[in-house]
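User: Structure please.
Assistant: Input sequence and predicted structure:
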Amino acid sequence: MSQRSVVHSTFVVERFYPAAPARVFFALSDPDAKRRWFVDPHDPMPSRHEMDFRVGGRETNAGCPSDGQMHFFNAVYQDIVPDSRIVYSYELLFGETRVSVSLATIAIMAENGGTRLVMTEQGAFLDGHDTPATREHGTGELLDALGAFLHVQT
C-alpha cells in the first residue's frame, strides 16, 4: 500500500472585472453561461456539465484533458447570497482517485464601477496527487477565463 498523506492549504485569488456584480454573479450561477467559461484550457469541451444552482444543489464537471484520464469536479452549494457570495464544497477526482476536498468561498463586491471578486479556498490535498500551488494556478486561469467571458459579453 502506498504512503497516505494530506496537505492542508488556504489560498486567496482576487480579480477585478469591469462589469456589475449582477453580471459576474450571473456568469457564476447560470448553467449555460458557466458552461462557456468554466473549462480546462487543455480540454475545452467537457464531456459532462450539470449544475443545480441552489443551496444543497450540486454541480458536476467531467472531462478528459491531455493526460488521458477523466477528471471530475463534484460540488455542493452550501450558501448563496445573490450578487454577493457563493460558498461550495467540492471534491476533485482524477479517474477514481480523490485528489482533494475543498471549501471555496467567492465574495463579489462592487468597486469603482465594476466588481472585485475574492475567492478563498481551503483545501485538503490527498496523497500527493495534487498540490496547493497547482490548484491556485488553475483557479487563477479559471478566473481569467471568467474575465474573458465577461469582456466578450459587454
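The chain has a mean pLDDT of 92.
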